[in-house]
Amino acid sequence: MEQQLSFVREVVAAHNADPSHLIAILQEIQGEFKYLSEEALTLVAELLHKSTAHVYSVATFYENFSLEAKGRHIIKICTGTACHVRKSEPIYEALYKELGLSGRRHTSSDGLFTLETVACLGACGLAPVMTIDGEVHSKMTPEAAVALINDIRAKEAGK
Q: Rounded CA gap, 20 and 71, in Å?
């Protein structure tokens, strides 16, 4: 954790502790650690002389910021109109169950996968679509999606 807080101090200093650079500071921190920890947000607030509530409000307003540690592999399920009509929701539900997720937790307990939804992946003709680590998988079914993550699990176990 101290390494993360040291990085936060460096980033804030590189931005001259300018509160108008808050979003850029948060982007750099998330770029390094894939999420914004409670400790990092509190330190940013302290270093910028802003309230913790203010920093949290910015971090939670923008969808691209995450307050939850992300898994090694990011799965994004498209919920846009074309994907929705072609049944993307059962794909999400199958992966949610397969990954053992519950409540608001989107990252598997083994830290391998984070499951997210996105409004559109821009591949409507290939619906339903999902990505894993940015790689597009088209015309998905719940069974095919589960098979993909099980293949990744097998590869990870073989490392």
A: 30
Strands 73-78 and 135-137 turn out to be unpaired
CA distances from 7 to 1, 25, 125, 154 (A): 10, 11, 43, 34
Q: Is residue 38 a contact partner of residue 73, using CB atoms and an 8 Å limit?
A: no
Domains of the chain: 2-61 (1.10.10), 73-157 (3.40.30.10)
Q: What is the pLDDT of residues 20-69, one digit of tens each?
A: 999 999 999 998 988 999 999 999 999 999 999 999 999 999 878 989 88
Query: Does position 102 have pLDDT exceeding 80, yes or no?
Result: yes
Helix/strand/coil for 65: coil
For the CA atoms of 47, 70, 83, 155, the dihedral, rounded to the nearest 10 degrees, stands at: 150
Phi then psi for residue 15, to 5 deg, are -100, 15
Cα–Cα distance between 47 and 25 in angstroms, integer? 11
SS3 106: coil
Both tokens assigned to 119:
């409004």
